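Many introductory courses stop at the sequence. We go one step further.
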Amino acid sequence: MKLGIHAMAWCRNWDNSALYTIDRVKAMGLDFIEIPLMNLDGFNVKATRDKLRAAGLEAVTSTLIISPEHDITNFDPKVRAAGTDYLKQCVQYTSEIGANFFSGVIYGLHLKSHPARPSEELIQMVAVQLKEVARYAGELGVTIGIEPINRHETFMVNTCKQALALKHMIGEPNVKIHLDTYHMNIEEKSLSGAVRDAGKDLGHIHLNENDWGIPGTGHLDWDGVFRALREIDYKGYASLECVIDFEGGGVWRQLAPDSATFVEEGIRFLAEKRENYWGR
């Protein structure tokens, strides 16, 4: 299992001012950095690729659809087309920096309210758009991941089984599942059960505490999660998120003294768990 960290531990958006985080992650002895693709205007592909190569560090990318203009759950075909183009651009940037995995909340507008459960028609409409994205990604050697998140942040995909159902509707081999233990703690009946359900289709997992605080300080069943990851012989990406220093990040109280403490203690805990279950 590859252990990494989300760049949002230090920056909200990715531009040249964030490049220093690559060296920081490398110095921590981690396997990869997760780069956010929320604001593509300031994204310098060449500088990012060169910095990753110089550091000898892997990367994955992730996004949330945060603009209504890119909402692929919109029944206006022009809006859906714009959203598909946005996701394709994310895939293109992922490939150009030398990465091969792009994931996140790619199936609709984040925090969008909806009057009812998503209809089969709506889900099928989204699957059609993501099939186009997946085929484009396949041409570039990129795998895309569907991340289920909790009911307060999306009405579309809340559980691993829903993500698997969408994956099967998309029907492309380069579509995987991206789990997040914070969201799983809210929506899944069993954390370890969800990991086993994902099985060979799991491509990325966010290892976050139940309250999004420092891993190991809450009530999450970490041994169950790592035991299940070991049982499915997971060799994919696993990263820690940290958003405590960002207002509007969805955390409204101080869960750690600062990001440095969060990162140091969180990574130490997760690395020890990996060592215990994987011997590395």
